[in-house]
Amino acid sequence: MTPVELSRTVLHAVRCAVDDGELRVAVPERVVVAPPGPGGCGEYATNVALQLARPAGRTSQHVAEVLRARLLRADGIGDVVITGPGFINISLRGSAVPPALVEEILSAGDTPYGHLPEGSGERLLLQGAAEVRAFVQMDVLARILRSQGHLVRAGCDVPPEPEWIAVLGGGIDHQPARAPDTTRIDVRPVPAPADPLPLGRDAARWALLRPAAHDRPRIGAEHLAQRESNPLFRVRYAHARTRALLRNAAGLGFRPEPGPVGVSGTRPLLAALADHPRVLAAAARHRAPDRLARHLVTVADATQPLLPAVLPFGAEKPSAVHRARLALAEAAGTVLADGLSLLGIDAPHHL
To answer: EC annotation (predicted)?
Structure first.
């Protein structure tokens, strides 16, 4: 539905309310709809109820409620929320956040969202070259495969270098015994062209993991840059922002509660969150941790437009809409934290 079509829909609701005697007022020639201002929600908002209240001899809240009931029955409109003194905020059909998705993410408990119960998959043995990129790939593949229920052991052809373990972490054995009914998987990515250890654990892991295994990784200071051009920074920053919002909301006295968020532009985020289980399954099936790394960038970039609208503005009181937005932000942060954890990368609460 375009803004012009929505304007006509609102005007039709006014005309029908007048024809049915619910409102006694002259029908305006047109109704203006525009993106909601601070404290508003949905894709569009209109102040038509405030304009009609005095000539109708009614409060703007009463006029808004009359029009809301009619708009909810109109094709293409998903939700209508009244805010402030009588602003009508309209969400188009298909734009509302499914509370069930957010609830599923936040209530996952001991088995995180997208993970499968331990032992529900195969017995696998990862075996790779004694090379730093293979070492990191095996460690992360083991984590991802375990998240999908597989029983996994991993080992290098020769003992890994002590510095790899000291800097990069990970628990890789040297030629672990192959148990019966175990499928062996060789992990031999294109080797790193330079020593990644000077980058430190998080940046080094990201540099080795984000490219596909058949691509040559880039080992450089760009992975340490604290700016938007660095995908790792965007992922970790988005996670830190969601956690900061939770702290700030607690200070204002409200908590997350799944529900309609009334913010335009959330569809990419919803799609990315809903896609998380599929990405984990595909990363495990194709032995491709790069799929998870790229997915986290997608989630982080889709989260950013939501964040400025989570907290109330000025003296505005926290409402159900703010609690729902906070819940969606927390869900995004939860998915980002889980993905970073599977990659063996820290998910900071402050950045």
So the answer is: 6.1.1.19
Region for residue 36 given its phi and psi (left: phi exceeds 0; alpha: psi -120 to 50; beta: otherwise): beta
- Range of the structural domain that residue 249 is part of: 96-351
Contact 39, 316 (CB under 8 A): yes
- Full-model pTM: 0.73
Instruction: Report how far residue 311's alpha carbon sits from residue 256's, in angstroms, rounded to the nearest whole number.
Output: 11
Predicted local confidence at residue 296, as pLDDT? 97
Structural domain count, the chain: 2
For the chain, helix (H) and strand (E) counts, in that order, are 12, 7
Cα separation, 141 vs 133, whole angstroms? 12
User: What's the CATH number where 40 sits?
Assistant: 3.30.1360.70
Residues 154 and 148: their CA atoms lie apart, in Å, by: 16
DSSP 243: H
Q: Could you give the count of Cα atoms lying within 13 Å of 215 in the half-sphere of its Cβ?
A: 12
pLDDT tens-digit series, residues 303-326: 999 999 999 988 889 999 999 999
Reference 99, options 326, 335, 334; nearest CA is: 326
Per-position b or e across 14-31, b if 16+ CB within 10 A of its CB: bebbbeeebbebeeeeeb
